[in-house]
């Protein structure tokens, strides 16, 4: 006989009959369709793909002649807890070949191992079809040598030490065998379970155990026997792999890794050895000796079948004493293994011991049990019947205590001292969160006392001073540590234990449909998750009913706890100093409460996903969504915002599908709104309803029926979609917009895009992100501002919506839709306006910006990042709407500001000119006129800029002036800056004169030097580069050209073009060059080319009156000074000659000295005879000749009815010839100069006088 724990049954053989006993319902199933005596029976999991799906297990039946397989089907029903069993003949059988099978075992991948009485291990191979070489079923000897194949079975050697039992470790891929002589062999099956590598046979177990624990066995080696081997699961230990039980009840702990591997290797390999690492004697009373013939080690617990007499066995049961271990750890900081034991008398002899029931969700730690009735159960099969043992855990002990009656301090403190407050509170929550039927099965006091224990004995948070070792040496303590109450830690312990199997496990998995299409299906047991959800809902209800669970008054809560309830090991600082601890604990408990709610909703969402049509999910949901969700664990589903966003996208994809049935969409929306309140908000539910309305509208549109209802549905869809905001998602927004456009409702599509953008971000976090991050990347804002993931998400969403809206406003390769464009301008969304303006600029439609008027445009054009293009549009915008003063101000800022250094000087002058034009327009067309002073200021600034441009042009022809040119182009300079930084240091004389004229500044000495430079450098041909002006006579023409060009620009500015100095220099030049008179002054024919000075001044647009006045002033002075020389030799040595240039005498002296300096070679002493050229007589003669030339020209101007096209007289102010005044002047000068100057000159004057009389 034996046990089939997999199907919760026992088996018994009587000759050829196999009887299967359902000990739960006490009914039997008999198989007797064969006539051979059955020796042994085993149950295994079948290989996949060989049997039908309803066959859950296979029975391996070994008889004296053959071994055959039977299919096992267990059908669940309401009449039997373990269901009904059916056995099927499989036609898979093989000859036993005289092998008496002593043990049968199977692996999880369907391999079958057998042990024979010949000492060999066999494997039974079976297939679904028979081939040429391999039969459908055959048996292979895995331990025989090669030569044994050729020896008949009748004569083969038989080993008396045959295998009695197997133990399979499916997790590690190991097969253990226990032989008759207590030898344990380790066989590696590999990670995939397909190998058979014999690693080691441990034959010296007794000797090693005796060395390790001399008192472990008192019977001696000959009596030593191992009665049971038990695999230790990975969840229980990584280093201990096998526990063997001896006939004295001792437990031998083995590892398949060597000591070095156990200590230093993190990644464990395949089995290497079988090493005994620990020996532990049986936990008996007064060291009573035992005679064990069977045993079981299971989850730290041991059950030993001790032979007492022929009628009954004693079951010696031992388990970990969690209470003693907890107390030892609390008191000493560490603990050794402490066990408690009990002895049960069982009628009959024990044949088999095995764990029964589902242990998949049961923890190996008894303290982690969250199910009151989920005990570890063991079936004991004896020749008298079945006995079921239930392993007691600490929760059972607490329930027993709280079920007796009202809680008293002694009992409460016993639980606290035994397990601690946290464990006590965790166990109380296990009871309090159980279902009603469970609570009714307990005593009336149990639930009430658990609540009392939880609240009144759960402790309080407090501050504990941690004293570190290094601190003790100097007498200092480290930072204090906050210790939470038992209620707090108990809640977290309960949650951790309840969720330990599911928390980090993916909740979905992908299932294949067809054509590589996939859909989501639960990866975890939905029933298990719903059970967890039920527990959490009950826990949530308990919290809601007891408001003191999360304290809101820390000090008051502390006073509610009595000192009698607090162990001496806990310290409580009563008073306000403890309020911070209560606040922290309340925050933490509220976080746990929120987590509970999120887990409940996550499981509800998982359940909702199961009602989604798999075809819709396969076709409508993107693979990226399904891929992300199949990786998501329950923890991520409950806490990750990203995963929740993916869940929303899943639901939107489903409800937005036209293939989804209306009732399914309604059910999903209703279920989400009811069960996933924080998981899916009201906006989510409204969104799903909007998709349903849109689907109805589409159907109406396809049938061309009821257009009014169709438009009404679309309007409702628009409102609901707009309210949903970002929940709609980019893909679905684009899809809905496309549907609206198919209805030719572009206005609705525009409102949808802009509404979704704005409603998604009511607090304008996207604008903060734009200001603090987008502009920050351009280098315009404070570098201390930080990025925000939520703000970035909202910003990206709004920009996507705006870009979608722009497709309607300006379709690709089309003109702007003026209607939609004007409507969009009415939206008061600043970020949309910014995006719209950016789009217009990038699309080269910037001229449109000058013709629109919105509250945001001016700020946009002024905003960062600033650009010339935006400022150009800004002044044009002002000018378009007749705001000329503001346009002028912007233009003036562009011209004179330093914001844009890339603006050239020419462009600045253009801006300045435009600013002046707009300023003048302001004076004519605006009520609030621009002040005239500002206009005058800009006009002067433009003139200064023109001089600045001249300096740039001059410097462009000079080497090594790149820096100065770059500086001059960078901004506008004022007069002083131009003079001090450029004109004066670089000897730009013409620009100096222009600056003098503009500033009305006078420095006659410098001006005299400048004009002297121009005249004498022109004579030497250095100023002009024209080859046509080479030679002495042509150099005089060059002087005339230079002076006249200056006169045109500078006259009538006396500060920059003083006529007295210019005439003095020119007269001196004529005298020096003797252009009018030769050395022979009596030669009347020597006068040539008269009127040089006069013509130069006339070409300078100087009126005849002004020329007459200056010449007459010199003549009046010289003729009154005729008896003296203008200059003598001693004047040439005077250093103060140029100090005063206010009198004709000093001017002429300075001019003569300058002429002599210019004509005397460097390093030579001037010739005193050269002064003869500058006598009073010669100067007067020259002036008289100029005067008569002037009068003749004047007469021509006056007598001409019209100025010819070439005549410059059109530029003269007054050309009326004053005949009387001229005649009188001529008479005066003839009289005064007669006999003093050349007679030819006098004759010409007299002749001119006669002509004037005749003409007038």
From TrEMBL:
Molecular functions per Gene Ontology: structural constituent of nuclear pore
Subcellular location: Nucleus
Domain Nucleoporin Nup133/Nup155-like C-terminal per the UniProt entry, residue ranges: 485-1116
InterPro entries hit by this protein: Nucleoporin_Nup133/Nup155_C, Nucleoporin_Nup133/Nup155_N, Nucleoporin_Nup155, Nucleoporin_Nup155_C_1, Nucleoporin_Nup155_C_2, Nucleoporin_Nup155_C_3
Nucleoporin Nup133/Nup155-like N-terminal domain residues: 1-386
Domain of life (superkingdom): Eukaryota
GO cellular component: nuclear pore inner ring
Gene Ontology biological process terms from the UniProt entry: protein import into nucleus; protein localization to nuclear inner membrane; RNA export from nucleus; transcription-dependent tethering of RNA polymerase II gene DNA at nuclear periphery
Record field: transmembrane: none
Keywords from the named record: Nucleus, Transport
Keyword Transmembrane helix among UniProt keywords: no
Alphabetized Pfam families for the sequence: Nucleoporin_C (PF03177), Nucleoporin_N (PF08801)
Gene3D superfamilies: 1.20.58.1780, Nucleoporin, helical C-terminal domain, Nucleoporin, helical domain, central subdomain, Nucleoporin, helical domain, N-terminal subdomain
Keyword Cytoplasm: no
Alphabetized PANTHER family for the sequence: NUCLEAR PORE COMPLEX PROTEIN NUP155
Family: Belongs to the non-repetitive/WGA-negative nucleoporin family.
Protein's recorded name: Putative nucleoporin
């Amino acid at each position: 006989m034996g046990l089939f724990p997999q199907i919760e049954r026992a088996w018994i053989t009587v000759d050829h009959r196999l009887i299967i006993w359902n000990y739960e319902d006490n009914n039997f199933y008999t198989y007797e369709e064969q006539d051979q005596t059955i020796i042994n029976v085993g149950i295994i999991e079948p290989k996949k793909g060989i049997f039908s799906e309803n066959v859950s297990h296979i029975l391996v039946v070994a008889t004296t002649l053959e071994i055959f397989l039977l299919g096992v089907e267990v059908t669940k029903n309401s009449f039997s807890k373990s269901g009904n069993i059916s056995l099927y003949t499989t036609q898979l059988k093989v000859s036993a070949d005289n092998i008496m099978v002593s043990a049968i075992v199977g692996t999880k991948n369907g391999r079958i191992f057998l042990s024979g009485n010949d000492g060999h291990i066999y494997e039974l191979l079976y297939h679904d079809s028979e081939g040429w070489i391999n039969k459908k079923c055959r048996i292979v000897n895995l331990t025989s040598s090669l030569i044994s194949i050729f020896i008949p079975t009748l004569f083969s050697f038989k080993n008396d030490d045959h295998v009695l039992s197997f133990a399979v470790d499916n997790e590690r891929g190991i097969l253990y065998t226990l032989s008759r002589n207590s030898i344990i062999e380790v066989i590696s099956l590999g990670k995939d379970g397909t190998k058979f590598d014999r690693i080691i046979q441990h034959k010296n177990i007794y000797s090693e155990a005796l060395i390790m624990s001399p008192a472990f066995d008192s019977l001696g080696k000959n009596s030593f026997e191992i009665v049971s081997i038990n695999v230790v699961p990975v969840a229980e230990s990584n280093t201990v792999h096998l526990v063997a039980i001896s006939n004295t009840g001792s437990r031998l702990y083995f590892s398949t890794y060597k000591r070095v591997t156990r200590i230093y290797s993190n990644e464990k390999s395949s089995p290497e050895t079988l090493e005994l690492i620990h020996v532990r004697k049986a936990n008996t009373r007064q060291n009573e000796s035992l005679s064990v013939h069977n045993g079981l080690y299971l989850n730290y617990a041991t059950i030993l079948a001790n032979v007492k007499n022929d009628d009954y066995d004693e079951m010696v049961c031992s388990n970990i004493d969690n209470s003693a271990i907890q107390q030892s750890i609390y008191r000493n900081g560490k603990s050794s293994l402490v066990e408690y034991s009990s002895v049960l008398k069982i009628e009959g002899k024990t044949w088999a011991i095995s764990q029964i029931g589902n242990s998949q969700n049961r923890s190996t730690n008894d303290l982690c049990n969250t199910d009151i009735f989920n005990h570890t159960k063991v079936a004991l099969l004896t020749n008298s019947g079945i006995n079921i043992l239930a392993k007691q855990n600490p929760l059972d002990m607490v329930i027993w205590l709280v079920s007796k009656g009202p809680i008293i301090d002694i009992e409460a403190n016993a639980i606290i001292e035994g397990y601690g407050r946290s464990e006590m509170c965790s166990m109380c929550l296990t009871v309090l969160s159980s279902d009603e039927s469970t609570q009714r099965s307990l005593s009336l006091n149990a639930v009430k006392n658990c609540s009392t224990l939880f609240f009144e004995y759960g402790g309080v948070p407090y501050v504990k001073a941690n004293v570190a070792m290094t601190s003790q040496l100097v007498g200092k303590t480290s930072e204090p540590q906050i210790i939470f109450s038992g209620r707090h830690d108990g809640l977290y312990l309960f949650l951790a234990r309840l969720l330990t199997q599911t928390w980090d496990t993916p909740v979905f998995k992908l299932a294949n449909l067809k054509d590589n299409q996939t859909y989501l299906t639960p990866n975890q047991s939905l029933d298990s998750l719903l059970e967890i959800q039920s527990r959490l809902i009950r826990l949530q209800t308990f919290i809601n009913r007891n408001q003191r669970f999360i304290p809101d008054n820390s000090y008051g809560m502390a006073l509610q706890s009595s000192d009698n309830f607090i162990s001496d090991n806990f310290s409580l600082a009563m008073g306000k100093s403890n309020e911070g601890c209560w606040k922290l604990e309340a925050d933490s408990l509220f976080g746990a409460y929120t987590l509970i709610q999120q887990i409940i909703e996550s499981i509800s969402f998982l359940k909702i996903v199961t009602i989604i049509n798999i075809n819709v999910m396969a076709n409508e949901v993107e693979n990226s969504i399904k891929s992300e969700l199949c990786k998501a664990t329950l923890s991520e589903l409950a806490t990750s915002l990203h995963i929740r966003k993916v869940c929303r996208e899943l639901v939107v994809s489903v409800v937005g599908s036209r293939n989804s049935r209306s009732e399914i969409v309604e059910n999903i929306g209703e279920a989400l709104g009811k069960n996933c309140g924080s998981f899916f908000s009201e906006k989510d539910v409204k969104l799903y309803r909007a998709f349903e309305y849109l689907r109805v509208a589409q159907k109406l549109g396809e049938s061309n029926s009821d257009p009014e209802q169709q438009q009404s549905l679309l309007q409702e869809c628009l409102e609901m979609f707009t309210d949903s905001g970002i929940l709609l998602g980019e893909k679905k927004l684009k899809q809905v917009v496309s549907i609206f456009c198919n209805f030719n409702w572009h206005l609705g599509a525009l409102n949808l895009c802009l509404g979704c953008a704005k409603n998604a971000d009511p607090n304008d976090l996207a604008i903060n992100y734009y200001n603090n991050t987008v502009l920050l990347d351009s280098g315009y804002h404070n570098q201390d501002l930080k990025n925000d993931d939520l703000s970035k998400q909202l910003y990206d969403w709004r920009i996507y919506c705006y870009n979608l809206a722009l497709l309607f406003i300006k379709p690709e390769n089309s003109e702007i839709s003026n209607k939609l464009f004007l409507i969009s301008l009415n939206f008061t969304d600043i970020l949309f306006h910014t995006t719209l303006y950016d789009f217009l600029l990038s699309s080269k439609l910037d001229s449109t910006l000058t013709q629109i008027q919105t509250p945001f445009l001016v700020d946009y054009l002024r905003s960062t990042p600033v650009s010339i293009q935006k400022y150009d549009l800004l002044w044009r915008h002002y000018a378009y709407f007749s705001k000329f003063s503001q346009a002028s101000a912007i233009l003036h800022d562009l011209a004179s500001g330093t914001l844009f250094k890339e603006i050239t000087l020419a462009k600045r002058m253009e801006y300045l000119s435009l600013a002046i034009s707009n300023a003048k327009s302001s004076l004519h067309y605006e009520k609030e006129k621009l002040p005239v002073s500002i206009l005058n200021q800009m006009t002067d600034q433009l003139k200064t800029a023109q001089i600045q441009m001249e300096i740039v042009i001059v410097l462009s022809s000079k080497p090594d002036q790149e820096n100065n040119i770059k500086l001059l182009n960078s901004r506008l300079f004022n007069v002083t800056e131009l003079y001090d930084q450029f004109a004066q240091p670089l000897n730009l004389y013409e620009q100096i004169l222009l600056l003098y004229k503009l500033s009305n500044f006078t420095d006659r000495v410098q001006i005299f030097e400048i004009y002297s430079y121009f005249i004498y450098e022109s004579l030497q041909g250095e100023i002009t580069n024209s080859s046509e002006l080479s030679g002495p006579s042509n150099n005089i023409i060059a002087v005339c050209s230079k002076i006249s060009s200056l006169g045109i620009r500078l006259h009538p500015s006396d500060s920059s073009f003083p006529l007295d100095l210019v005439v003095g220099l020119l007269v001196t030049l004529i005298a020096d060059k003797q252009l009018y008179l030769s050395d022979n002054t009596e030669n009347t024919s020597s006068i040539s080319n008269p009127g040089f000075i006069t013509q130069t001044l006339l070409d300078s647009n100087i009126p005849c009156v002004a020329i007459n006045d200056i010449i007459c002033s010199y003549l009046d002075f010289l003729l009154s000074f005729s008896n003296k020389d203008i200059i003598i030799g001693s004047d040439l040595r005077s250093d103060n000659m140029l100090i005063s240039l206010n009198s004709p005498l000093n001017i002429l002296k300075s001019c003569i000295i300058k002429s002599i300096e210019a004509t005397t070679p460097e390093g030579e002493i001037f010739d005193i005879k050269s002064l003869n050229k500058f006598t009073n007589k010669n100067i007067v003669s020259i002036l008289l000749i100029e005067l008569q030339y002037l009068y003749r020209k004047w007469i021509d101007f006056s007598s001409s009815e019209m100025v010819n096209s070439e005549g410059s007289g059109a530029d003269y102010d007054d050309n009326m010839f004053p005949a009387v005044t001229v005649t009188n002047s001529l008479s005066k000068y003839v009289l005064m100069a007669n006999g003093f100057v050349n007679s030819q000159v006098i004759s010409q004057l007299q002749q001119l006088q006669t002509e004037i009389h005749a003409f007038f």
